[in-house]
Specification:
Layout (H helix, E strand, L loop, with lengths): L4 E5 L6 H8 L5 E3 L3 E2 L14 E2 L2 H9 L3 E7 L2 E6 H9 L3 E5 L2 H10 L4 E6 L3 H11 L4 H15 L7 E4 L3 H13 L3
Parallel strand pairs: 1-7, 1-8, 2-7, 3-4, 8-9
Antiparallel strand pairs: 3-6, 5-6
């Protein structure tokens, strides 16, 4: 049995990482770990949260067609290692990609059967509060992130499913149902 490919996208600060970490606990799922050129945050671990690599290495991987998708976002590059995803799918695991909207579009082109899921905040005010509460960005950066978020939220109709992140457990249950439903 080949697993299903699920793509989780949504604006920054909506809770994609939290949802992904919960889904990772289900042994039927494999969570792809993206490569990035941005520096690790204080709480991030190389190989667990991201593969932190140089821009030169990232560009080599693009040239070798080693990414399922890749994009530049907020001054850094992000990409999903293609071979790892294909191996997990072929082993029967459901694969969850936590990626940006441009990457979701690329995945749709390469894997038309992928299930694209847009994670929506309960409200724009709640998203603003979440981003501000992180304490990692200055006010100008928060304003820029919120402007990007508004544009990203306008793309939700491009996705197969929209899940509102009111409660983490309910969103996780929704993702599991989407992957395990018989077609």
């Amino acid at each position: 049995m080949i697993g299903k490919l699920l793509v989780l996208s949504g604006p920054g600060g909506v809770g994609k990482s939290t949802i992904s970490k919960e889904v990772r606990k289900d042994s039927r799922f494999w969570l792809s770990i993206s490569c990035t050129t941005r520096p690790a945050r204080a709480n991030e671990i190389d190989g667990l949260d991201y593969h932190f690599i140089s821009t030169a290495k990232f560009d080599e991987l693009i040239a070798a067609d080693a990414f399922l998708e890749h994009a530049a976002f907020a001054g850094a590059k992000y990409g999903t290692p293609r071979a790892e995803v294909e191996a997990a799918l072929n082993s029967g695991k459901h694969v969850l990609l936590e990626i940006e909207i441009s990457g979701a579009r690329q995945v749709r082109n390469r894997f038309p059967n992928a299930i694209l899921i847009f994670l929506m905040p309960p409200s724009f005010e709640e998203l603003s509060a979440r981003i501000t509460a992180r304490g990692t960005d200055h006010p100008e950066r928060i304003a820029a992130r919120l402007e990007i978020a508004a544009a990203e939220m306008a793309t939700a109709s491009e996705f197969d499913h929209i899940l509102v992140n009111h409660e983490v457990d309910k969103v996780v249950a929704g993702l599991v149902t989407l992957a395990t439903a018989v077609e």
